[in-house]
Amino acid sequence: MAANELKLEPRLKAIVEQEYPRFSDAEYARRHKRLAGVMETAGVDHLLVVTNNRAGNATQWVTGWPGTVEAYTIFKPGVKMTMYMEWYNHLPLSKKIARDVDVHWGEHHGMARTIAELKRRGAKRVGIMGPLVVSKYRELEEHFQMVGLDTEYVRLRMIKSEEEIDWLRIGAALTDLGLAALLRETKPGLTERELGNIVERAYVGHGGTTMIHYIGRTSMAKPHIFVPPQHPSPRTVEKGDVVFCELSAFWWDYAGQVLRTFTVDAEPTPLYRDLYATAEAAFDAVTKVVRHGATMQEIIDAAGVIENNGFTVCDDLMHGFGGGYFPPILGAKSRPAGPLPKLTLEENMTVVVQPNVIMREQSAGVQVGELIRVTKTGFERLHRAERGLFRVGLAA
What we know:
The protein is of the alpha+beta class and 396 residues long. The chain is 34% helix and 24% strand. It has helices spanning 10-16, 25-42, 58-63, 91-97, 110-120, 134-141, 150-158, 162-185, 192-203, 270-289, 296-302, 305-308; strands at residues 46-52, 70-76, 79-86, 101-105, 125-129, 145-148, 209-219, 241-251, 254-255, 258-264, 312-313, 318-321, 325-330, 350-353, 357-358, 369-374, 379-381, 390-392. The strands form three sheets. Strands 7, 8, 9, 10, 12, 13, 14, 16, 17 and 18 form a ten-stranded mixed beta sheet that branches.
């Protein structure tokens, strides 16, 4: 247990020690004010915030309660929110956690109850944020003019408040625990599934939950994968393997993300040394240009060391993160992620820089990177995990 100790500064520790952590009243007021601005621009009189089958996190951002199978929250500035949610056994906790909301059981026809409430309020033009099946969207359209506002929601989440960044620091610390355990306990004979179990056991006891743990292992002499798989296999770790991972542990809706590569009971081969050195050089070059106002072309150009060394990438080079997978989503010169986004980095964006440098013929690869915060003049690390091409195992 001591090896998995969560070390946080006092203000962050106080957040973790709450029964059900909640942001300050001022933070929720900030969010609601921004929602009101979106509504005014869109010309809608009410906003419907949706969570469906646990998909869609706008409900949590607006109310503090993570939606379960189905939740419809009606928001209007200056009026107490109303929510219809499922299931009945989830009702007591949702009433306790949701802030400034009249929470009701949807009785398995929550959309009908939502429509009735909107009609009672005299709604005419309704904005919507979150996923909704077509049949229920059409039910709404029978009564109201509907305006999709998912793009605006993404924009609201791209720039983080100081409180949100603190929650991301906790997510990063939990993620670092998972990585530390993986480095400490990986050895020949363990399966990929067991490696995932090692990662989760490090942070679940501290209130963390799993977003992802993508862990790949392959022989350095005869590699069979070049990017960590999204599902573990029963393949076992062997001496002479390389392991590369992408880990994210949630603190509620705020996850860290760390990517690392290490070898098992063996020194890296020349190929893996070159792949890894290129990935580190790309990470350093990209983060060197990261700052408020940095352009997408500057970032792509900075990562040119990848192509200069004869390699390419599979995974995205950079993406926005923290409450979702957000713009800017960038590939590399040799593997674009579509047209370059027409935006610049802004202070308090949080992004993951993650050069997954691979062979052009897709035979071998490594992962390097982590979540960072964009500042006025550069960037701030949110993780404390060490960087380096580590060696682990029985003889490490």
